[in-house]
Amino acid sequence: MNKKIIFLDIDGTLFSPQIGGTPESALKAIELAKKAGHKVFLCTGRSLAGATKYLHYPVDGFIFGAGSSVYVNGQHIYDNPLTKSQLKALTQPLEDLRIPYMLEAAAGVYGDETGYGYIVDYYGGNTSDRAKREKIVLENNIYRFDYLSEEENIYKMCIFLQDLRLMKDLEDRLEEPFVLTVSAFEPKRQLHIAEITNGLETKATGIQKVMDYFGLAREDTIGIGDSANDIPMLDYCGVAIAMGNASKVAKEHADFITKDILEDGIYHAFEQFHLMGE
C-alpha cells in the first residue's frame, strides 16, 4: 500500500480525561505504523504549551492551535499568533458576559480563576486529591493569569459555558474571521468547552501546509478525531475516522467509526486500515 500520513487529534482521541493519559495500545499503534513507513502527526487545538507531554512521542511533527502553528521534523514551518488588537477584541466580550476562559500560548496556557479550576478538573484524571490534580496541571504548563507575560504570543482561546444562551450572545459579538466551536462536553457539570479560533485557519489548513512541505497529495492522508473542531480535518483527509466516543456531528463526517478511546480505538483503526504492517 502507499505510505500514508496520519493525523491524530489529542483530546478524546489520544488523551482520555478518565485515565489522565494515553492508552498504551495507542502508543503501540503509532510505533508500529512508523516502523511500517507511515508518517504520523499530532493535529490538535492545543497550543505547544498544552502539548509538551506529547513532544517525546515518536511522531513526525505537530499542528498546534487548530492550524495556527505547524512543526515538521522539529522545524517550525508556520506561525500565526493573534495580534494584540485581535486579543483585546476577543477578550472584551468574554469579560462583559462573565464567561470563564483560557488563553493558549506557546509557553503556557493561562486561565482566570474559574477557567483554571475547570481545567484542573479536566486534566486531573481520576484522582480526587486536589494537590495531585494541580501537579498534573502544572506539568501541562497550565497557570493562572498572574503568570502571563505581555510578550507571549497567544494562538487561541478556550471558553467554558454552562448556559448555552451565552454562546449566541458571544457569537453575535465576535468579529470576522473568528469563530466559536464547541469542542467537548463534560456531563458531570453540564459544562460545554468551546474554542475561539481564526476561521481562516483550521486543522485542514495546517494539514495542507504539511502536505505542501512534503509535496504529497491529500489522498494519502488519514485523519482521526472525535469532536466538532476535527471536522475540517475529517473533511480534508482521504480517509476520515471518528472515535467511537466521538460526537454525533463528528461521526457524520467520518468514513469509518472505530472503537472508543478506552477500548483501544486507535489500535483498532490502525489495524482495520493495515497501517501497522503485516
Automatic annotation (TrEMBL):
Taxonomy, superkingdom: Bacteria
Keyword terms: Hydrolase
InterPro entries: Cof, HAD-like_sf, HAD-SF_hydro_IIB, HAD_sf
Pfam families per record: Hydrolase_3 (PF08282)
GO function term, MF aspect, one: magnesium ion binding
GO cellular component, one term: cytosol
PANTHER family in UniProt: PHOSPHATASE YKRA-RELATED, PHOSPHOSERINE PHOSPHATASE
Protein name: Cof-like hydrolase
Organism: Bulleidia extructa W1219
Classification lineage: Bacteria, Bacillati, Bacillota, Erysipelotrichia, Erysipelotrichales
